[in-house]
């Protein structure tokens, strides 16, 4: 199993085109027992606010493989996050304040899993990937599901583009 350090880093363990393109058997083979998921633009497109059928099907496959799931979202709208989590069949932690690692650590305690068995899946380098690295868990960066973003996220996307120069995403 790859060793994960707890440090400030913007590097992901893997880069994958979308959540649905993440190989579930590959997660099992890597010892993953908990998948933490960002909500907005990772499993729920910002322009629809509903998870696509393909994301729901992938989550069913993840759970069928015996892997737990939990949404970890920076979104401050608790009702929206909890509603999405119910629809996704996941536990949820909102007000995450990523890149701080505390919400990821809370989700791991909630689900009873350790760092070595956890992976964080998200669409943003400077929140999801950095939080995963600071929490000592592996990160999978996916492309955002929608071009629609909050104004400040659009600014971060400029720097993210620079940080991702030369990175190849599986499935593209």
What does this molecule look like?
With 172 residues, the chain is α/β, with parallel strands linked by helices. It is 37% helix and 15% strand. The chain is built from 6 helices and 6 strands. A 6-stranded parallel beta sheet has the order 1-6-5-2-3-4, with helices on both faces. The longest helix has 13 residues. The model has no long low-confidence stretch (mean pLDDT 88).
Quickly describe the structure.
This protein is α/β, with parallel strands linked by helices and 172 residues long. The chain has helices at residues 24-29, 53-64, 78-88, 102-111, 125-135, 151-163; strands at residues 14-16, 34-37, 68-72, 91-93, 118-122, 138-142.
Annotation keywords:
172 residues; alpha/beta; six-stranded parallel β-sheet; 6 strands; 37% helix
Structural class by SSE content: alpha/beta
* Shape annotation: globular
Order of strands, main sheet, comes to: 1-6-5-2-3-4
Strand elements, count? 6
Radius of gyration: 14 Å
Mean pLDDT: 88
> What characterizes the major β-sheet?
6 strands, parallel
Number of helices: 6
Give the distance, in angstroms, between the N- and C-terminal Cα atoms.
26 Å
String of helices and strands: EHEHEHEHEHEH
- Low-pLDDT runs of 5+ residues are none
Helix content: 25-40%
Strand content bin: 5-15%
Per-chain topology:
Layout: E1 14-16, H1 24-29, E2 34-37, H2 53-64, E3 68-72, H3 78-88, E4 91-93, H4 102-111, E5 118-122, H5 125-135, E6 138-142, H6 151-163
Parallel strand pairs: 1-6, 2-3, 2-5, 3-4, 5-6
């Amino acid at each position: 199993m790859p060793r994960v350090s707890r440090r400030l880093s913007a590097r992901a363990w893997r880069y994958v085109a979308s959540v649905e393109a993440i190989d579930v058997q590959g997660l099992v083979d890597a010892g993953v027992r908990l998948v933490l998921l960002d909500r907005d633009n990772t499993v729920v497109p910002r322009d629809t606010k509903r998870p696509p059928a393909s994301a729901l099907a992938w989550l069913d496959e993840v759970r069928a493989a015996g892997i737990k799931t939990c949404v970890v979202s920076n979104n401050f709208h608790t009702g929206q996050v909890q509603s999405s989590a119910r629809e996704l069949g996941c536990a949820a932690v909102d007000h995450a304040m990523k890149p701080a690692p505390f919400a990821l650590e809370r989700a791991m305690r909630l689900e009873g899993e350790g760092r070595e068995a956890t992976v964080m899946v998200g669409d943003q380098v400077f929140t999801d990937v950095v939080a995963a690295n600071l929490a000592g868990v592996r990160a999978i960066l996916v492309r955002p599901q929608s071009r629609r973003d909050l104004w400040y996220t659009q600014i971060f996307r400029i720097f993210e583009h620079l940080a991702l120069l030369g990175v190849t995403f599986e499935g593209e």
